[in-house]
Amino acid sequence: MDLIPNPESPNSDNASGPHLSVIGTASSSSTPPSLSRYESQKRRDWNTFGQYLKNHRPPLSLARCSGAHVLEFLRYLDQFGKTKVHTPVCPFFGHPAPPAPCPCPLRQAWGSLDALVGRLRAAYEENGGKPENNPFGARAVRLYLREVREHQAKARGISYEKKKRKKPPTRDQTPPPGPAGTTAAATS
């Protein structure tokens, strides 16, 4: 970041010297700095949710929004999903790679919903909402996400359980004992 004179400053009569502003090197004083991909997505998601509240019948204010409205929004988004989620009656239910197409519905993937809720939860608080009133952190929303994850895991036959990674051996560890309790170094 550079400190540069700001001629557009309201007190830039230069009587007391130039006023300095902190701005990024890649931006000018007339355009805001570009947002990160996460921040852009968060803003886009927040605007989409705001539009959803505005179009809701009857229209909802953010202050009256609850976890139930968030669930309604998440279910509404399912129609735009791209993840095939097999129904229990589908012959491919539980198969991670089905050999043929089926008429099962496309839904939002659990990971996408989880990330969306996280971004909206942060955006709610950044826009003046109190953490204890955050509808995106409601118990019903957390339970819904858990149900979606479990259902999609069963439908695909894939577990979402986190796998524990084995720690690679460090260089200063002694090698495992070889035959008859001798080390590999002693036998060579």
Automatic annotation (TrEMBL):
Signal peptide: none annotated. Residues 37-164 form the ALOG domain. Residues 1-41, 154-188 are annotated as: Disordered. GO terms for biological process: mRNA transcription; response to light stimulus. GO terms for cellular component: nucleus. It comes from the Eukaryota. GO terms for molecular function: DNA binding. InterPro entries: ALOG, ALOG_dom. It is found in: Nucleus. Keywords: Developmental protein, DNA-binding, Nucleus, Transcription, Transcription regulation. The keyword Glycoprotein does not apply. Residues 27-36 have a biased composition (Low complexity). The keyword DNA-binding applies. PANTHER family: PROTEIN G1-LIKE2, PROTEIN G1-LIKE5. Belongs to the plant homeotic and developmental regulators ALOG protein family. This is ALOG domain-containing protein. The lineage of its organism: Eukaryota, Viridiplantae, Streptophyta, Embryophyta, Tracheophyta.
